[in-house]
Amino acid sequence: MDNSPTALFENYDEDLKHLLSNLKSKLEGDVKLLKGEERKAALKRVTEELDEAQETVAQMEVELPSMPVSIRQVYQGRLATSKQALEKVKKSLKDVRQENQRNELFAGFPDRDDPYTDDPSGFSSRTRLLQGTERLADGSKRLDNAHRIALETEDVGADILRNLRGQREQLENTRDSLTQADSSIDRAAGTLKKMIFKMYQQKFVTGGIIAILVLLIIIVLWSKIHG
């Protein structure tokens, strides 16, 4: 399996396109056909899949710094396009949620009530309409805050992944250095063994020479004494 940054980016990009295509299909078709709790459950599943898509984008960002400079700009453009596609799906999800909230809000209004009439029942409907609008605005603000927090979390996650990649590279460099040091120690040990062997060999030769000289001296002395 190719674990190069380019190959990993391609895999993440393919997964992201598949995820966004499924999400778009669900938001434009399946989710709109559902109602009530079933629609809420479907929106929850879409949100979870959207979180997965955001994580995939973060992984793509992590791979960019490790790519060769000559091709990095091309992949940066592809990443920007993927982010734009992700934002469009987020906007679609936000629109569907707002539509769902409006449907739930107006579902409780009787058809015979005019929200702008002056009679008491009309005033009650107008009041409920204003309250519902306020709740809808609050819900939109919460969604915006959640979106902002998600983006901040995404940035933090990308930084963590980059730090982990840097630490992994440091560990790999340390491992390579230790391997080289081990090889150097083995070579040094072999050289020392050869030096020790030659030292003993020289001592043995020197001792033999000394023994021969002593023997020759003894022979000469003996010949002189008995000659």
Automatic annotation (TrEMBL):
Membrane topology for this entry? Single-pass type IV membrane protein
Among Pfam families, the record links this protein to: V-SNARE, V-SNARE_C
**Which residue ranges run through the membrane?**
204-225
Q: What GO CC terms are in its UniProt record?
A: cytosol; endoplasmic reticulum membrane; ER to Golgi transport vesicle membrane; Golgi apparatus; late endosome membrane; SNARE complex
Its main subcellular localisation, reduced to a broad class, is membrane
Q: Does the keyword Protein transport apply?
A: yes
Q: Any idea which GO molecular function terms this record carries?
A: SNAP receptor activity; SNARE binding
Tell me which SMART domains the record gives: t_SNARE
Q: Which keywords has UniProt assigned to this entry?
A: Coiled coil, Membrane, Protein transport, Transmembrane, Transmembrane helix, Transport
Gene Ontology annotations of biological process type: Golgi to vacuole transport; intra-Golgi vesicle-mediated transport; intracellular protein transport; macroautophagy; retrograde transport, endosome to Golgi; vesicle fusion with Golgi apparatus
- Is the Nucleus keyword given for this protein? no
User: Coiled-coil region(s) at which residues?
Assistant: 36-103
Where in the cell? Membrane
Domain T-SNARE coiled-coil homology per the UniProt entry, residue ranges: 133-195
Check the record and name the PANTHER family matching this protein.
VESICLE TRANSPORT THROUGH INTERACTION WITH T-SNARES HOMOLOG 1A, VESICLE TRANSPORT V-SNARE PROTEIN VTI1-RELATED
The family assignment reads:
Belongs to the VTI1 family.
Q: What is the protein name given in its UniProt record?
A: t-SNARE
> What organism is this sequence from?
Kockovaella imperatae
Q: What is the lineage of its organism?
A: Eukaryota, Fungi, Dikarya, Basidiomycota, Agaricomycotina
